[in-house]
Design a protein that fits this description.
Helices cover 58% and strands 0% of the residues. The chain is an all-alpha fold.
């Protein structure tokens, strides 16, 4: 009985891990490629649902992607004109928790009365 329960737990953990991992299509593995940009657009839509929005892959599009991910104007985001930006976005899209942690840290820094605010290191 204990072995059966252990196996069930292992299978459940494996299924949960597989379902939380965001996988991009195999042809999207080359960051900054047209297929990669399209796959990011599918996961982080930048338009209004009526075919209005920035051209996928443009600087404006990249800015909107940063905004939607909650990382625009943060110091750790690489410049938009290089592959480093694509790799950075790829990492966040593949692991949404990374983006959530960064957003929580930024919100904490902006709360008056937090230790960082008292020390004068935020705002």
């Amino acid at each position: 009985m204990n072995r059966w329960m252990a196996m069930c737990l292992i299978v459940a953990a494996a299924v949960a891990r597989a379902s939380t991992a965001e996988e991009l299509p195999s042809d999207a593995n080359l960051v900054c490629s047209d297929s990669w940009y399209r796959s990011i657009e599918e996961r982080v839509p930048t338009g209004d649902g009526q075919a209005h929005g920035p051209d996928v892959g443009s600087d404006e599009w990249k800015s909107v992607v940063e905004f939607k991910l909650g990382i625009r104007d943060t110091p750790d985001v690489p410049e938009r004109d290089g592959e480093a930006w694509c790799r950075y976005i790829d990492q966040i899209v593949r692991n949404p928790r990374t983006s959530d942690v960064r957003a929580a840290e930024r919100q904490w820094k902006q709360v008056p009365g937090t230790q960082r605010d008292v020390l004068g290191t935020s705002r």
